[in-house]
Amino acid sequence: MSVPSKMKAIGFTQSLAIAEQDSLVEFETNLPELKEHDLLVKVSATSINPADAKIRIRSAQDKTLEQPKVLGYDAVGEVVGKGTDVEGFELGDRVYYAGDVTRMGANAEYQAVDYRITAKAPTSLSDEAAAVMPLATLTAWEALFDRLRVRSEEKKSILIIGGAGGVGSITIQLASQLTNLTVIATASRPETEKWVRDMGADHVVNHRNLVESVREQGIQHVDYIFNVADTKGHWESMVELIAPQGMISSIVEFDGGIDLSALQGKSAGFVWELMFTRSLFNTDDIQKQQDILFQAANLIDVGRIKSTLTTTLNGFSVETLKDAHQRIESRSSIGKTAIKY
């Protein structure tokens, strides 16, 4: 495949409400230069994540960026170039990845991505069905096994707050398929309750009266909590529900403080999960993300894990990406939305 020297990309220079005309803009730019560990990928599909909206809203408040910032932290595409130190990939390979938040994202025709955080895409999924998987899968896997340090053989319980979203949906599946945990997930509407049960939840509870709802299931305390919805808003409920010597993890940052001392009596712990940490700091174990994506692709291809795709938007355009941002900002979506280029 011949690779052009220029490409189309979509980004932003100011933090504007998504409905405003210039909240996202199309522009032409040079193809990214490859570092020694990089793959050059011709992007065929991406998906929308809360991270896209958060970065758009926060990165250029009261200023104008000199160069547009390009979002997009999930992608599927074809390898069309590679750096000098790349191992295990060939031109033409179909790959999937979440990427690196410090670099140009997937809202472009081509993207450079470190091969160590990339894997060959599941063969059983379409581009759009595969594109919704990397970020959520990496987040869920790292939270379960790296942050909470769940052991697959232990017969304990986990409460997933925000069960119907992208990360919650994958966490339910991984916990159900790879551990002996009793999986409790929150949902507050009939359609979301059905969704989380289909994902594999053993119990469904309502986040609006969380403590009561959990205990109505005959469950006094839970050994693990993973919060993907609202850390501060659910803090007191989590403190009440966590078991002695239990662990809480969250991906949702917040303003102000929380009473971390409230966990002291139970000798319980709290730990953050940020999927971008390994790439941000080029950690010694950065290649573990490739391994996670490789294992996830195998689980998908043998039918143990399924894509959380619920909506596909077609066409790489400002209008399509604005539609995707509006959907993620509504906070009422089930599963994930993909954009097929």
Structural description of this entry:
The protein is α/β, with parallel strands linked by helices and 341 residues long. It has 10 helices and 16 strands. The chain has helices at 50-58, 127-131, 134-147, 166-178, 190-199, 210-215, 235-241, 277-280, 288-301, 318-329; strands at residues 6-12, 25-30, 38-47, 69-70, 75-82, 94-97, 110-114, 118-120, 157-161, 182-186, 203-205, 222-227, 242-250, 269-272, 309-314, 336-340. The strands form 3 sheets. Strands 3, 5, 6, 7, 8, 15 and 16 form a 7-stranded mixed β-sheet that branches. Strands 11-10-9-12-13-14 form a 6-stranded parallel β-sheet, sandwiched between helices. Helix 3 (134-147) packs across helix 4 and helix 3 (134-147) crosses helix 9. It is globular. 47% of the residues are buried.
